[in-house]
């Protein structure tokens, strides 16, 4: 038996930095990288505070948020180092190609790809990379830990997940293989539905339009939306609406996904052309972690009697962590 707390996002930062920058940040091995994690946490906390008090920011001097701006500088310096390295490698590669020298395969990380489109604008490149890097690890950590928090309290669900994963045999856990594990996907979806990793979804209407419900005395008639109107969709309300999910909407029941193919009733990553660009990355990492645990451990049990207590930075996470026991 092993007992662990899966609250820490460190492992996710290592994985995501390798995907984004081509190099792992090394949080698991290098203690000197801990200021980077602290800065990331401060950025997320500050962003949430500024969002909550957005209409009062005019009365709050920048000095109040000095800790937040200092954290941003730390992350900018980290990203700038990778951008300088990338531009340098691009120039060296181009020079070698022009000289007729043999060059190796190109890097496949996100920064390398984006740098091809922004070869002369390091600030714009940093902004685009930061948009993905800064909020990326917190939701993935919450997605994984929330799922483990749920299944640790449901041994029957874990048995089904494990049986489905083991049926894959020795075949690699590719993205396609993981997405074909329907019950595993159902467990992740159900965890995401009950323990939302992104609370709200806001959009501004570009043209006059209508929504199918929300009007009339009972809210079930179409409603007119004017151009410029801002629509806030609160996922916690939408994902637990008994009119959509049934009377057991508050219960953890992965089986509800066996016949359900929701569209706009389940939008954890948003929808349309501006849906979350990291959706597939989040799904792949969460599925892989749970599947690997299912391969290794016959059962898991909760070691935390406390209820779920959300604490919000970029996304809600359990204040008490995710303390579980794993049995071979």
TrEMBL record:
<dbReference type="InterPro" id="IPR017972">
    <property type="entry name" value="Cyt_P450_CS"/>
</dbReference>
<dbReference type="InterPro" id="IPR047146">
    <property type="entry name" value="Cyt_P450_E_CYP52_fungi"/>
</dbReference>
<dbReference type="InterPro" id="IPR036396">
    <property type="entry name" value="Cyt_P450_sf"/>
</dbReference>
<comment type="similarity">
    <text>Belongs to the cytochrome P450 family.</text>
</comment>
<keyword id="KW-0503">Monooxygenase</keyword>
<dbReference type="GO" id="GO:0005506">
    <property type="term" value="F:iron ion binding"/>
</dbReference>
<keyword id="KW-0349">Heme</keyword>
<dbReference type="GO" id="GO:0020037">
    <property type="term" value="F:heme binding"/>
</dbReference>
<dbReference type="Pfam" id="PF00067">
    <property type="entry name" value="p450"/>
</dbReference>
<keyword id="KW-0479">Metal-binding</keyword>
<keyword id="KW-0408">Iron</keyword>
<dbReference type="GO" id="GO:0016712">
    <property type="term" value="F:oxidoreductase activity, acting on paired donors, with incorporation or reduction of molecular oxygen, reduced flavin or flavoprotein as one donor, and incorporation of one atom of oxygen"/>
</dbReference>
<protein>
    <submittedName>
        <fullName>Cytochrome P450 monooxygenase apdE</fullName>
    </submittedName>
</protein>
<dbReference type="InterPro" id="IPR002974">
    <property type="entry name" value="Cyt_P450_E_CYP52_ascomycetes"/>
</dbReference>
<keyword id="KW-0560">Oxidoreductase</keyword>
<dbReference type="InterPro" id="IPR001128">
    <property type="entry name" value="Cyt_P450"/>
</dbReference>
């Amino acid at each position: 038996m092993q007992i662990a707390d899966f609250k820490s996002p460190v492992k996710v930062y290592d994985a995501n930095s390798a995907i984004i920058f081509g190099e792992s940040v090394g949080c698991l091995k290098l203690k000197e990288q801990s200021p980077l994690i602290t800065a990331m946490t401060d950025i997320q906390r500050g962003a949430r505070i500024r969002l909550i008090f957005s209409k009062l920011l005019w009365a709050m001097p920048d000095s109040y948020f000095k800790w937040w701006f200092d954290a941003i500088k730390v992350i900018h310096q980290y990203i700038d180092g990778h951008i300088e390295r990338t531009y340098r490698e691009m120039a060296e590669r181009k020079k070698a190609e022009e000289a007729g020298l043999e060059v190796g395969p190109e890097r496949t990380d996100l920064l390398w790809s984006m740098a091809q489109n922004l070869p002369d604008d390091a600030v714009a490149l940093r902004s685009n990379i930061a948009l993905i890097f800064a909020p990326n690890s917190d939701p993935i950590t919450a997605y994984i830990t929330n799922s483990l928090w749920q299944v640790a309290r449901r041994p029957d669900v874990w048995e089904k997940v494990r049986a489905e994963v083991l049926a894959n045999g020795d075949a690699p856990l590719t993205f396609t293989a993981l997405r074909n594990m329907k019950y595993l996907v159902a467990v992740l979806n159900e965890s995401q539905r009950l323990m939302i990793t992104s609370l709200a979804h806001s959009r501004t209407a570009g043209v006059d339009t209508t929504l199918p419900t929300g009007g009339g005395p009972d809210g079930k008639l179409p409603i007119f939306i004017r151009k410029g109107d801002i629509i806030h969709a609160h996922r916690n309300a939408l994902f637990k609406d008994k009119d959509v999910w049934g009377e057991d909407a508050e219960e953890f029941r992965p089986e509800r996904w066996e016949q359900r193919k929701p569209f706009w009733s389940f939008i954890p990553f948003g929808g349309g052309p501006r849906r979350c660009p990291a959706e597939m990355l989040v799904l792949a990492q969460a599925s892989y972690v749970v599947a690997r645990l299912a391969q290794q451990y016959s059962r898991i049990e909760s070691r935390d009697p406390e209820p779920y207590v959300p604490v919000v930075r970029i996304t809600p996470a359990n204040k008490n962590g995710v303390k579980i026991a794993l049995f071979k």
